[in-house]
Amino acid sequence: MMKTLGFVLIFVLLVMDLTSLTLADNVDRYIQALKDPDSYVRQKAAENLRDAKDIRAVDPLIQVLMSDNNSTVKRLAAWALGDIKDIRAVEPLIQALQDVEVRGNAVYALGEINDSRALDPLIQALQDSDWHVRRNAADALGTIDDPSAVEPLSDKLSDDVCNVRKSAATALGKISDPRAVGSLIQDLLDTDCSLGRAEAAFALGKINDSRAVIPLIQVLKVDVSKYAREGAARALGEMRDARAIDPLIQALKDEDYNVRSSAAEALGKLKEARAVEPLIQTLKDTDLSVRKRSAWALGEIGDARAKEPLNQTLNDENAGLEYAAAEALSKLE
């Protein structure tokens, strides 16, 4: 009988016409449903409260996090608390880091709330035996953006799991502290994690330290991973170092269209006249995104040699490319 009532409540929560109810009515019903004896009803209630992001749900969700007997419900409560982003949840979520079944979601939530009290517990979570927790901790530390996490995150660039290394590199890019440059350059040599190399390249571009220019050029020239080459091209564009001009021009011929597109954009940021003729050639690239980026780059460089080729591009059947060419021409006048 109780189970039947529970599924009836699920039906009421998920199928009824909520447009006839106020948001307050909905949230109150979901909060009440957190006490339902059926765990599936409690799960759906927590999911709906996560979507509602109403601060009235914070205390009831904390209670669920601390005392519910179903691990899935507790995980969903942690997730909801992270998306609501209320600081009342910080201490309970720190306590939940001791719960083996919940700590991954608790780490995520602490990153979303972005409170300095979570910094040390999250740094400790980088050593967790579960790589999902380590990855989430790295992501969270990137969100909190505190320089004291630089060394622990740099250590995670040598983690056994590629996804952890990738997240650590991303976080270091967000923090953008020069102390991470040496470790990130070393990470560019990571042979079995191409996405990690790509994120290391992105991070080096954000930090913008001249020590990274030559290693990034090497990645752009010879790395077997298209993701790493793309990351290097984008990073070199952010750094705007003249040493990258010729390698980026060569990258306009890369076999991967994302690399070519990123190289074109980087050359536009560098505003180097030597790139004009190669970029005019890539206005005829087989890939639309490369053609659009090349048009944009020619507008940024502002060289009159690009006027006629851009005028010809105005007749392209693609409206996006036509618009990019028109924008570029407006900068040449």
Keywords:
single chain; 333 residues; mainly alpha; Leucine-rich Repeat Variant; 21 helices; elongated
What would you say this structure looks like, in words?
The chain has a domain at 1-113 and 127-142: Leucine-rich Repeat Variant (Alpha Horseshoe), CATH 1.25.10. It contains 21 helices and no strands. The protein has helices at 2-15, 23-33, 39-52, 58-67, 71-84, 90-96, 103-113, 119-125, 131-144, 150-155, 162-175, 181-187, 194-207, 213-222, 226-239, 245-251, 257-270, 276-282, 288-301, 307-313, 319-332. Helix 16 packs antiparallel against helix 17 (257-270), helix 17 (257-270) runs parallel beside helix 19 (288-301) and helix 19 runs parallel beside helix 21. It is elongated and about 70 Å long. The chain starts with a helix and ends with a helix. Mean pLDDT is 92; it is low at 15-20.
Q: Class of the domain at 1-113 and 127-142, according to the CATH hierarchy? A: Mainly Alpha
According to DSSP, the number of beta strands is 0
**Structural class label:** mainly alpha
CATH architecture of the domain at 1-113 and 127-142: Alpha Horseshoe
N-end to C-end Cα span: 78 Å
The run of helices and strands is HHHHHHHHHHHHHHHHHHHHH
Shape descriptor: elongated
Percent range of helical residues: 55-70%
CATH homologous superfamily label of the domain at 1-113 and 127-142: Leucine-rich Repeat Variant
Give the rounded overall mean pLDDT.
Answer: 92
Query: Strand share of the residues?
Result: under 5%
Give unreliable regions as ranges. 15-20
Q: Number of helical segments?
A: 21
**Which value, in Å, is the CA radius of gyration?**
25 Å
Query: What would the CATH topology of the domain at 1-113 and 127-142 be?
Result: Leucine-rich Repeat Variant
The biggest beta sheet is recorded as: none
